[in-house]
Amino acid sequence: MDLLDHARAVRENAHAPYSNFKVGAALRTTSGAVFTGCNVENVAYPEGTCAEAGAIAAMCAAGEYEIAEIAVIADSPSPVPPCGGCRQKIAEFANAAAAVTLATVAGESQVTSVSALLPGAFDASHMA
Ligand code: THU
């Protein structure tokens, strides 16, 4: 299955009663495994988590830590980009050139990269 199809499918499981904005994310690791996540909101709004964070948590729980590519989808008027916090979370586990596919449920999509989404990222080198 295409990575975007995985993201489209997991989006259906999102818990988004407050925003009514369901998001699905799917990532492929360098080993070829696919992990998915959806947004999980909470009545205490700041406790909600993004779809990308869910997919990354599933990846780490399985003992994998290298994102080769990631796709995000929502019922958005234009291809939905990861929020700022998720850009940093993705950068933790992906190369600068890793592909990030942004998509809409309607079928529009756009491919960009981790470095294009988060230029000048803070990384471990800054703590050396
Ligand atoms: N959301 C994500 O899951 N990923 C993003 O990259 C953008 C925003 C979620 C968070 C919240 O549940 C809802 O979308 C509205 O912001």
What is shown here, in short?
The chain has 128 residues and is an alpha+beta fold. The chain contains four helices and five strands.
Keyphrases for this structure?
alpha+beta; Cytidine Deaminase, domain 2; 4 helices; 5 strands
Structure characterization notes:
The chain has helices at residues 3-11, 51-61, 84-93, 114-117; strands spanning 23-29, 34-38, 67-74, 94-104, 109-113. With 128 residues, the protein is α+β, with helices and mostly antiparallel strands. Strand 1 and strand 2 form a beta hairpin. The mean pLDDT is 97. Bound molecules: tetrahydrodeoxyuridine. Residues 16, 19, 21, 23, 39, 41, 48, 50-52, 72, 82-83, 86 line the site of tetrahydrodeoxyuridine.
Which structural category do the helix and sheet elements fall into? alpha+beta
Main sheet makeup: 5 strands, mixed
Mean pLDDT: 97
Would you give the CATH topology?
A: Cytidine Deaminase, domain 2
Helix tally equals 4
Main-sheet strand order equals 2-1-3-4-5
Q: What is the CATH architecture assignment?
A: 3-Layer(aba) Sandwich
Provide the list of bound ligands, each named once: tetrahydrodeoxyuridine
Determine the strand fraction and express it as a percent band.
Answer: 25-35%
Count of folded domains: 1
Estimate the global geometry from the Cα principal axes. Answer: globular
Q: How far apart lie the N and C ends? A: 41 Å
Kindly provide the radius of gyration, computed on alpha-carbon positions and rounded to a whole number of angstroms: 14 Å
Question: Briefly, what CATH class?
Answer: Alpha Beta
CATH superfamily: Cytidine Deaminase, domain 2
Low-confidence stretches: none
Element-level helix/strand string: HEEHEHEEH
The count of strands amounts to 5
Q: Into which percent range does the helicity of residues fall?
A: 25-40%
